[in-house]
Amino acid sequence: MSPTFPALAFHRDVGRYAEEDLEKLTHFVDSEDFSTCTAWELKHGQRLGMVVVGPDLQGWKVVGVTDLGVVGSFWGRVLRFLVQQSTHLVDQQIESIGPMTLEQVKDRVAASILANPDDWRDDEAIAGEAGPPREEQDLLDEMVAAVRAAASLPQIIDALHAE
After folding, report:
1. Which residue has the higher pLDDT, 112 or 17?
2. Neighbours of 159 (CB within 10 A)
3. Closest to 146 (Cα-Cα) out of 113, 101, 116
4. Is 114 buried (19+), middle (13-18) or exposed (0-12) by CB count in 10 A?
5. Exposure of 118 by Cβ count < 10 A (0-12 exposed, 13-18 middle, 19+ buried)?
C-alpha cells in the first residue's frame, strides 16, 4: 500500500536555521511528485519522519529514504548542478500510521500555518499592490478559516493555494 494523491505532508523543519519542534507543511500532486526531492532535502533528511495524508485520510510515515540518483534531461541536470538544486529520484519506505479525521488534519494544517507565517506570507497583498494594503495576521486568519471550512483534503489543498 502507498499514499493516495493529492496528499498533504507534515515534516520537521531542517537546515542551518531550523527551529526544533517546528512542523512544516507541503503537498504532493501525484506519486511522481512524491518520488522526487531536491539534493537539499536529501542532505538534511527532510523526508525522514514525514507524515503523508491522502484524500482517503489514511496516514503514512516515511521511515527510510534511498537515493536512486539524479533525474532530468542532460542540460537540466547540468543547470541544476550549477545552482546546487539537483532533483533526485527516491525510494521511500513508508508505514501506515492509521487513519486521521478531517478535523485532525485541519487542526494540524492550521497550527502549521500560524507557526510558519513566512511560508504563507502574501507580500503583494500586504504591500497593497492589488488593492488596499492588508495586515499579515488578517490574511493568515482568512487562510485558516478557509482550511477549517473545507469539506475534504483536496479542498484544504485548494484553500492553501487560493489566489
Report:
1. 112
2. 19
3. 113
4. middle
5. exposed
